[in-house]
Write a structure and sequence with these properties.
Elements: H1 7-18, E1 22-28, H2 32-40, H3 42-49, E2 53-57, E3 65-72, E4 77-85, E5 88-92, E6 96-105, E7 108-117, H4 123-150
Antiparallel strand pairs: 1-7, 2-3, 3-4, 4-5, 5-6, 6-7
Length: 153
């Protein structure tokens, strides 16, 4: 696959452009369809995958672009522009950008995640986050995606 047709490579470019404090890739030992079923179920699964998300409401329909409503763990609400297609998910609010991407890799799935705060003034805080928590948060996220995908067998 070249970079334009590989969603994981595309997300890597997005993360670099955002200077995302959270970007990681992992090979998950489950088929793409099983992994992506969890990732694409934003309303049902995102609150399980991200501890700080209490609720994520996505309007019904099969449009690739939607406006979703999120409620965090302490009750703050935000609107997200969501782009969702097989192997690609990009969610942006005025403060946060989060992306997930996946491609089949034999019987497994190559999966990536990124997250960044949007205001440039938060750059120093993002660098501190990357150093202190980024890798640990990514590992926990991957573990939960894999665990929840395995339940869908």
């Amino acid at each position: 696959m070249n970079g334009t047709s590989d969603p994981v490579a595309r997300l890597r470019v997005v993360a670099a452009g955002l200077r995302a404090p959270l970007y990681a890739e992992r090979r998950i030992g489950l088929p793409f369809e099983q992994v992506w079923a969890v990732v694409a179920d934003l309303e049902g699964e995102l609150p399980h995958l991200l501890s700080f998300v209490r609720e994520f409401r996505v309007p019904a329909g099969d449009s690739a672009r939607k406006s979703a409503r999120a409620v965090d763990a302490i009750g703050f609400r935000g609107t997200f522009d969501v782009r969702l297609a097989p192997g690609w998910c990009l969610m942006q609010s005025r403060l946060v950008t989060m992306g997930m991407a996946a491609v089949p890799d034999g019987d497994c799935t190559r999966f990536a995640v990124c997250g960044a705060m949007r205001p440039a003034v938060l750059g120093p805080l993002q660098r501190l986050y990357r150093r202190l928590l980024g890798e640990r948060r990514a590992r926990a996220f991957f573990r939960e995606v894999e665990r929840r995908a395995a339940l869908r067998q």
